[in-house]
Amino acid sequence: MECIKTINEVRSIVRKAKKEGKRIGLVPTMGYLHEGHLSLMRMAREKSDFVAVSIFVNPIQFGPNEDYESYPRNMKRDLRLCEDVGIDVVFAPEVPEMYPEELLTHVVVEKITDNLCGTFRPGHFTGVATVVSKLFNIIQPDIAVFGQKDYQQLVVIKRMVRDLNIPVEVIGAPTVREEDGLARSSRNSYLSYEERKVAPVLYQSLLKAKGMLDKGERNPDNIKKVMEVMISSKPYTSIQYISIANPCTLEDLEVIKDKALVALAVYVGKTRLIDNILWGYEDA
Q1: Which residues on neighbouring strands pair with residue 145, listed in sequence order?
Q2: Residues contacting 186, CB < 8 A, separation 6+
Q3: 3-class secondary structure, 126
Q4: Which end of the chain is more exposed for a tag (fewer CB within 10 A), N or C?
Q5: How far apart, in whole angstroms, are the C-alpha atoms of residue 234 and residue 101?
Q6: pLDDT class for 150, splitting at 50, 70, 90?
Q7: Does residue 25 contact residue 143 with C-beta atoms inside 8 Å?
Q8: What is the pLDDT of residue 49?
């Protein structure tokens, strides 16, 4: 496995693999890898012949009061985990390599970024779409794997690829959870011992929503009220949003019919955690 820091060098390595007829897979990450990331890498390994992983904490997707500077980093450990999974190349550029001068071009995906996290993180998905489009142009993968935990991000990237005719198959992978149901996230490392004990209430509330849907409840407000009570009963929690939305458009549903996305963002202490479930899908 090679760790490459320059665009020209990683392009050269991938170009060689393509000439050998290999199918290229890409897993974009911001590092501080956990089992969720590794599951994406294993999926990419299964579906391609040559797997690249990017490790880049992207500054343009963080707001002015967010955790860019404090975002957890451990490159040495990340590289060891990548090697264990069998990754072929890690692309780990520094910020000046990706943004050598003032960035005057951005990729803006509209409408589906207006709700959920987009409401509270203005500019976030523009930063995500821009850096992912850059990575797609640099690596030129055949497939790219993203996690369902960041469901809105997955929808945004799929729409960007569709609208701009980017020849990449975007694959969503299931959320990986701790034994108590908490979705794996690099930001879980921010949680104190006491906060960590209450954090599983996010997933418990999602399961409660699923149970209500399974029993025939179709009023989103009724479901959200139950979820709010569950979460608010725990210390350290502060709900940013709970949404029951159309899984494709991400617009809030007034009446639930056959399919729904139940998504939330909750502060546990000072840590913002997100999670979601899909309802109405056989494999959800």
Answers
A1: 171
A2: 30, 31, 32, 33, 34, 71, 72
A3: helix
A4: C
A5: 46
A6: very high
A7: yes
A8: 98
Instruction: Count CB neighbours of 61 within 10 A.
Output: 21
Please give the CATH topology (third level) of the domain spanning 186-277.
Pantoate--beta-alanine Ligase; Chain: A,domain 2 (3.30.1300)
Q: What is the pTM of this model?
A: 0.96
pLDDT band per the 50, 70, 90 thresholds, residue 281: confident
> What is the spatial distance between Cα 254 and Cα 84, in angstroms, rounded to a whole number?
47
- The domain locations on the chain are 2-173, 186-277
Backbone angles phi, psi at 5, to 5 degrees: -110, -10
**Rounded Cα–Cα distance for residues 26 and 170 (Å):** 10
183: DSSP letter: B
Residues 143, 171: contact at Cβ < 8 Å? yes
The mean pLDDT of 137-150, rounded to a whole number, is: 98
**CA 27 – CA 6 distance, rounded (Å):** 17
Active site residues: 37
CA separation, residue 107 to residues 66, 125, 253 (Å): 21, 9, 27
pLDDT in tens, 193-235: 999 999 999 999 999 999 999 999 999 999 999 999 999 999 9
- Report the alpha-carbon distance of residue 140 to residue 91 in Å, rounded: 13
Q: Sheet harboring 237-245: ordered strands across?
A: 237-245, 260-268, 271-279
Residues forming a β-bridge with 193? none
* CATH number for domain 2-173, candidates 3.65.10.10, 3.40.50.620, 3.40.710.10, 3.50.50.60: 3.40.50.620
